[in-house]
Amino acid sequence: MGLSTHVLDTMHGAPAGGMAVSLFTTNGQAATLVKQFTLNSDGRNPDGPLYDNASLKVGTYRLVFDVAGYFKLLGITLPEPNFLNQVSIDFGVADIHAHYHVPLLVSPWSYSTYRGS
């Protein structure tokens, strides 16, 4: 199944539909933008997996989630500067035949991630 992501808004107990996300490939400190997308009402990429197994390559990647923009879109008043602005998750893909699912659980004040299934 390749690479996928899913975001849950733990403040509201719901998927984070409307959040902007960017996917990069990385090489050391250098990052190359692959795609930008906005999560659908289920908190997922509307186009499905970010990479299928045929396109996924061994290497390092970065997902950047616009957390502050999402909560501001919902009308949540955030302090300036906000505690969380963008959340970046750097991760590696070692097995292109495996599924790499990178979920994000997020509120304006905290986040958690793991390698999902």
Which characteristics define this entry?
117 residues, mainly beta, Immunoglobulin-like, 4-stranded antiparallel sheet
SSE order and pairing:
Blueprint: E1 3-9, E2 14-15, E3 20-27, E4 30-38, E5 59-66, H1 67-73, E6 86-93, E7 100-106, E8 111-113
Parallel strand pairs: 1-7
Antiparallel strand pairs: 1-2, 3-4, 3-5, 5-6, 7-8
Structure in words:
The protein has 117 residues and is mainly β. The chain has one domain: Transthyretin/hydroxyisourate hydrolase domain (Immunoglobulin-like, Sandwich). The protein has one helix and eight strands, in the order βββββαβββ. Strands 2-1-7-8 form a four-stranded mixed sheet, with no helix packed on it. A hairpin with a 4-residue loop joins strand 1 and strand 2 (14-15). The chain is globular, with a radius of gyration of 14 Å. The termini are close together. The model has no long low-confidence stretch (mean pLDDT 96).
